[in-house]
Amino acid sequence: MSPIRALAAIGRPVIAGLRLVGALTIFAAQAVSHLVRPPFYPRETLIQLVQIGWLSLPVVGLTALFTGGALALQIYAGGSRFSAEAVVPSIVAIGMVRELGPVLGGLMVAARVASSIAAEIGTMKVTEQIDALVTLSTNPMKYLTLPRLIAATLAVPVLVGVGDAIGIAGGWAVGVWRLDFNSATYLKNTVDFLETWDVVSGLWKGAAFGFIVALAGCFYGMTSSRGAQGVGRATKSAVVTASVLIFAANYILTETFFSA
Predict the structure, then answer these.
(1) 3-state secondary structure of 53
(2) Would 70 be classed as within a structural domain?
(3) Number of domains into which the chain is organized
(4) Is 80 exceeded by the pLDDT of residue 218?
């Protein structure tokens, strides 16, 4: 392969990625610009709060529960090599609220919600329901996209907070029933080593991840091509893009919050 062709093979996906980032940024700016301009659709926002928040609680809760338990086992196994088993409660709590709670919660919501939003809006586009909204002088960005962005941004931090509590409870259950920790000592170590900013930073991450999930779902739904294959590609792309952006945003936010 000639050097020019090699550079072209590298450059094409890079340019495609930059084009996607630019398109997502413009789409997000257009959606957010409608926040202060009427009309508003509070009923649609409430419906999406239920769909995104309440109905995602079981999968987020179960994920957090088993993650907290597994984390306690792993930290205990690693700490026992250095006679540091006592760090299990504090590291489980900090690991859940800073990283695992927000990231895994965001990924679970991305798997469930981004795909659902992309499929729903993509189907509406295929069946020309979005064209019908425009005919009725209803802005699709304001009626379809903005309520989902608001709902996800508000709901995911709540899911993260609940998931943090469930994950810590899972670590406590494993620590007390499986690893023979004293319950009162385990809870005291959890409270003593956990700081307010640890929890707040995780909630801020949850808000950012919720926005990313809804943005990816709405973007790919609105830009999906016609036909069942187009909707399928939009659904797949929404989940993949949301997941990758969550990991990227998590690093940026962690660097911002804890670089000092």
Answers:
(1) coil
(2) yes
(3) 1
(4) yes
